[in-house]
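#onboarding

Welcome to the new folks! Below is a worked example of what a typical request in this channel looks like: someone posts a single protein sequence, and someone else replies with the predicted structure as tokens. Don't worry about understanding the tokens yet, we'll cover that in week two.

Example request:
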Amino acid sequence: MPEILQPAPHPAGLLTGRNVLVIGAGTRPSHDPKAPVGNGRAIAVLAAREGASVACADVSPSAAAATAALVDEEGTRGITVVGDATGPGQSSSMVAEALRELGALDALVVNVGIGLGAGLADTSPQQWERVLSLNLGAPFLAAKYALPVLADGGSVVFVGSVAGLRAATNSPAYDSSKAGLFGLTRHVAKEGAPRGIRANLIVPGLIDTPMGREASAGRASRSASFARIPLGRQGTAWEVAEAVTFLLSERASYITGQSLVVDGGLNAV
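Example response:
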């Protein structure tokens, strides 16, 4: 496995004693020895650095286990959970397994997404259904099964995309599914509020991850947009993870139903 751990700032113990389930905690395999870490793995590792035990869920057993091992190296407990987040039965089982192994659940992070199709004409109904099932259906299922068992005062964070703010890609299914996450986030915040459970959405821009590099290689327009980022560079998965960790923590205790854009100013300027 390539080295992925960046030198950390002094951890503040933001999540000490918390139990977190991260769905989509793996990172796509890469032959590049300098491959960057993916968002899900960075989120799980940073949560552990801040004191959380983490159930690392992924459809790939090896990817989930690799992330759980990195969590263990941070001195907390990493649990490997395997399942397809688009299946109701498997989604429910992942939540139940995380709850059983960790003893309690304080937080849920859902980091999933694929893009298929090219424009309306070249997006098949099957591609549309597949993308919506993973990008929007899986977060719905995770929230449906996790919300009743989350501890009072807990937190839910979905990981979306700036594609939900505008027609950012050539995939109508991807753009539409990420836009739908804004509505789902608001609804989960509404249902969770009586128990003090907060729900928020992280909206990453052009982030240097294995999936991002794959998208850049296949679409010149994405690479060209790097020059338009006001901060002059892509973001990293660690910067996405920092934002997620903040929203999971008590430092965000009065923030719910909101979206936090992490894009270097791309959509603002």
